Amino acid sequence: MKKHILFISLAVTLFLGCEKDKTTTNYDWIPTSNKSLLLDSSMLEGNTRAYFYTIDNSNGYLSVYNQMISPPKYSLYRISDQGQNFEEINYPLGRLIKDLSFINSFSVYLLLEDTTGIDSKLYYSDDEGISWTEKNNNINNNIEYPLAQIHFSSIDSGIAISGTNKVLFYTTDGGENWIKNENRLFSNDKDIRNFTTIHNEPNICFLTLGDSLFYSIDGGFIWQIHSYLGDCCYYLISFINKDVGYIANEYDIYKINNIGSDVTKVYTSDRQINQIEAINDSEIYFTANYSMFKTSDDFHSVKKMNIKDPYPNEDGDRIIINFTLLLGNGLLVDTKGTIYCRN
After folding, report:
1. What is the pLDDT of residues 270-301, one digit of tens each?
2. In what order do the strands lie in the sheet with 245-248?
3. Radius of gyration over alpha carbons of the chain, in Å?
4. Is 335 left (phi over 0), alpha (psi -120 to 50) or beta?
5. What's the pLDDT at 183?
6. Cα–Cα distance list, 245 to 239, 253, 264 (Å)
7. Mean residue pLDDT across the chain
8. What is the tens place of the pLDDT at every residue in 174-232?
9. Sheet holding 147-152, edge to edge
């Protein structure tokens, strides 16, 4: 059974621009012209969480939520014009967005927490989120696993990770039915620590399982070992291409130079690492304890980014929660809902 749900997008489109003047010349990142475009006063309490989903240099989505207020608030924004425009869109249930996977700027899959807060619901839109079709979420053999993460390499073909992080599923009918991946890699008690893809190459995927990194070149259906990681837990992955990438645990960053190679430690942080994104060897950004750092020489030197505070006299910390280098000139968002761009 399919449910078709029509939503009218909010009429207000928010236009962003970086405020460049003589007071910003010494900053690496500066606030957009609308400093609190995303959140109303009830969300400006420093507990906001947000995630960018980048389609291409011009388009993407931003999921924003705050579960520390009552009632919790959840928002989804469509980003266009190289990160200049943000348009809030309505979506089914209005619940926590677990994951989002896009095929192109029009076609997007949305994985939501259902009304019980336990299970998941999957929806699909082919008109930029104006209308949504609910998928059946059937898993063969009546195995009940709430889905936690999704990735679609085409409108019909996709994979999903269960909420236990131990089971991998695939679909060939656009999420109508999910089949358990019977590969012996996913038949034990080892957690799938992380999963990622290469930007603009949806068929190339990576995941960590136990002490090894695995990769797929067919959208996640067939997996091969990429590199042995050793006895450690890696939570972050960012690959420049199929061969070269970076992985990180809580305090260390490692580089992988080619398939089959062992990892080489390139950096140790005195702060917990939260996110890493590598575009090439000269553009690698990461956040640690929610401050941002950059290396332009493959970690031979690391510079802390200078970010302009839009409200220097305001009480409370303003820390980075998510960033992307792939939209426009780059965007980041802090815990109080301010969007910044690279200066």
Report:
1. 999 999 999 888 899 999 987 899 999 999 99
2. 236-239, 245-248, 252-256, 264-268
3. 20
4. alpha
5. 78
6. 4, 10, 11
7. 81
8. 998 888 887 777 666 677 878 889 888 889 999 888 778 889 999 999 998 888 887 66
9. 138-139, 177-180, 168-171, 158-162, 147-152
Tell me the pTM.
0.86
* pLDDT for 143 beyond 80: no
Backbone phi, psi, residue 41, to 5°:
-60, -25
- Distance from C-alpha of 139 to C-alpha of 158, rounded to nearest angstrom: 14
Q: Tell me which of 13 and 79 has the higher pLDDT.
A: 79
Residue 19: exposure state from Cβ atoms within 10 A (0-12, 13-18, ≥19): middle
Q: How many CB atoms lie within 10 A of CB 42?
A: 11
SS (H, E, C) 177-195: EEEECCCHHHCCCCCEEEE
Q: Can you tell me the distance from the alpha carbon of 137 to that of 143, in angstroms, rounded to the nearest whole number?
A: 11
In angstroms, the first-to-last Cα distance of the chain is 49
- Asked if residue 18 lies in contact with residue 341, where contact means CB atoms within 8 angstroms, the answer is yes
Strand, helix or coil at 43?
helix
> Which pair of structure tokens corresponds to residue 170?
């695939």
Enter the DSSP assignment of 140: G
SS3 315: coil
Give the per-residue pLDDT at 46.
Answer: 52
CA dihedral 107, 6, 163, 143 (to 10 degrees): -100
Percentage of the chain exceeding pLDDT 90: 32
